Amino acid sequence: TPFPGGDLPFVVADWEGAAFHAGIQLVRQGHRRIGMLEYHERRPGLLAAEQGLKRALATVGVTERIKVFHDDRSPVSVARSLDLAFGLKERPTALVVTRASQLLTCYSWLASRGIRVPTDASLVCLANDSWYADLHPQVCHYLPNPQTMSREIAKRVLELVASGQVARDSIRMPMEYVSGATIGPAPGGHAAITLPATAGVPLLPATQV
Questions:
Q1: I need a labelling partner for 93 at 20 to 30 A (CA). Which of 60, 63, 132, 186 fits?
Q2: Would you say the pTM of this structure is higher than 0.85?
């Protein structure tokens, strides 16, 4: 996702769309307090993801219940953020993580504290990695389409080589939701609700910018 004011053509994953979809899945299960783990440098993709989660909560009239916890990409800093999150009086009932390495630390940290997923806390990861297949329970996460993204990038590269410029619109590519078993009802929270079937489904085709 480009930085504000950037004027270069881009092809990026739609992090806001993925986070919105994740938020809708959590809202449907009654979650209202959602924690988000992210790198301490607030880059455009992370800001877009935050916006997507806020939009999801806004569908049920909740405006500011996203709690962001930062780390420096080390397991110690992720664990420190989790200590802070679950030490709150109103701790998050769900976590959205933004990197595969965060996810591994979350799994081990939660297990060490006896916090069950998804009984005690739900967990969603916006990133993907091949080793997710070895996790139990299987994690809910998002998967970009590398073939489609590569094709769109190639079109723009060839256009640049041929004409010296890129006239095609920039594009945010929708991500595929891989359902797992890490989202459950919010413990002691709001009752699960039913939203329209289309709510939270990544839009196709990709968003033109």
A1: 132
A2: no
| CA dist., res. 159 & res. 90, Å (int) | 53
Alpha helices (H) in the chain, listed in sequence order: 15-28, 44-58, 75-86, 100-112, 146-163
Identify whether the C-beta of residue 128 lies closer than 8 Å to the C-beta of residue 143: yes
> What are 152's two structure tokens?
């769109």
Summarised one tens digit per residue, pLDDT across range 47-94 is 999 999 999 999 888 766 789 999 999 999 999 999 999 999 999 999
Q: Which of 67, 70, 113, 116 is nearest to 88 (CA)?
A: 67
Q: CA–CA separation, 17 vs 113, rounded Å?
A: 32
Token pair belonging to 186:
């919010």
